[in-house]
Amino acid sequence: MQRIQSHFLALGAIYLVIGLALGLHMGASHEFKFAPVHAHINLVGFVLHSAFALIYRTWPALADTILAKVHFWLFIIFSPILMIGIALTLTTGQEVPVMIGSLGVFLGILAFTANVLRFWGTGKLA
Predict the structure, then answer these.
(1) Would you say 40 and 83 are in contact if contact means Cβ atoms under 8 Å apart?
(2) DSSP letter, residue 65
(3) For residue 12, how many other CB atoms are within 10 A of its CB?
(4) How far, in Å, CA of 125 to CA of 62, rounded?
(5) Using one digit for the tens of pLDDT, what is the confidence trace for 54-91?
(6) Most exposed of 35, 69, 72, 123 (fewest Cβ within 10 Å)?
(7) pTM
(8) CA gyration radius for the chain?
């Protein structure tokens, strides 16, 4: 995948717009039921995606691996499932989607961590 950092950054920016729009809507309506969704959109969506973009830009050796691709695809598939799952849990009590989304995001974090640890001590992260 070419320029994984660009994809992560673009997705982070999209999540920022969505998170802020939800926050504006909640504030205008004085209905804060979806505050956990808003927080996860901003933290998992914007902050983590943007952090990954900066990390992959700073240490390009990390970006050119199968683990980076696995990390990327797990994150783009399961982050929205996590956020939609939180909304479903809040509205219907249905917990399966949030569990699936959480597990997928966690697996993405494991792939990212394995990727970083793979290069730790090699001098490529200096």
Answers:
(1) yes
(2) S
(3) 19
(4) 8
(5) 999 999 999 999 999 999 999 999 999 999 999 999 99
(6) 123
(7) 0.92
(8) 16
How many other C-beta atoms can be found within 10 angstroms of the C-beta atom of residue 92?
9
Q: Indicate the DSSP class of residue 4.
A: H
Residues listed for the chain: 126
| H-assigned helices in 1-126 | 4-29, 35-40, 49-58, 60-63, 66-92, 96-119
pLDDT tens column, 94-122? 999 999 999 999 999 999 999 999 999 88
DSSP 48: I
Of the candidates 106, 112, 99, 11, which has an alpha carbon nearest to the alpha carbon of residue 70? 112
78 and 101 Cβ atoms separated by less than 8 Å? yes
Asked if 60 and 2 count as a contact pair (C-beta separation under 8 A), the reply is no
CA 71 centroid distance within chain:
10
Separation between Cα atoms, residue 73 and residue 2, nearest integer Å? 13
Q: Tell me 126's DSSP state.
A: -
